[in-house]
Design goal:
This protein is mainly beta. It contains three helices and ten strands. Strand 5 and strand 6 form a beta hairpin. Helix 1 packs across helix 2. The radius of gyration is 17 Å and the shape is globular.
Length: about 180
């Protein structure tokens, strides 16, 4: 999931698929020149998470609802299962979630001081490398410094629902 020691070179090849350390560094967004030790802890992914399922007030919630979401209740869950590991260019990702059983597609992606642009996320299921891409539209809504983004696909809830309990990695690009 991330480059580790003590065999940094081998770990970098496993993480990035690149045999050249300069190419491996580029994959994990590290410029040259660099020390091999700077590769430790870096990943080709911005973040990983495990979608959870939650029932509240006769509503299905899927994802990781942690910070910056307008859920009105329990959004800052301290349970370790509700963890998003990693960030987007040093900015914390607070929530990745969707609400089922509603008339409209209610969804949240929150990024602390996130970009004032739409974003696209490539999600990869870690156990089998299956991939999905979803676009998120910037919302004018902010909570506690977290910018909110709305999923632009009706399949977003289905994606989270179908991957409850599975480790998912994601990489964000601005569009």
């Amino acid at each position: 999931m991330a480059i580790s020691g003590p065999w940094v070179g081998s770990s970098a090849v496993n993480e990035t698929g690149q045999r050249s350390m300069i190419q491996a560094a580029a994959v994990v967004r590290l410029g040259t020149p660099f020390y091999m030790s700077q590769l430790i802890g870096r990943s080709k992914w911005h973040f990983t998470f495990v979608p959870q399922e939650r029932w509240y007030n006769n509503t299905r919630w899927r994802g990781v609802w942690r910070k910056g979401a307008d859920t009105g209740v329990w959004y800052n869950i301290s349970d370790s299962a509700y963890t998003i590991v990693g960030d987007y260019n040093g900015k914390q990702i607070g929530t990745i979630g969707a609400v089922g059983d509603s008339v409209e597609n209610v969804s949240n992606l929150t990024i602390y001081d996130g970009p004032n642009r739409n974003v696209r996320i490539l999600f990869t299921r870690v156990d089998n490398n299956q991939q999905w891409t979803f676009d998120f539209r910037i919302s004018s809504y902010m909570r506690d410094g977290f910018r909110n983004y709305d999923a632009m696909s009706k399949d977003w809830y289905g994606f989270l629902n179908g991957n409850v309990g599975v480790t998912i990695s994601g990489i964000i690009t601005e569009i």
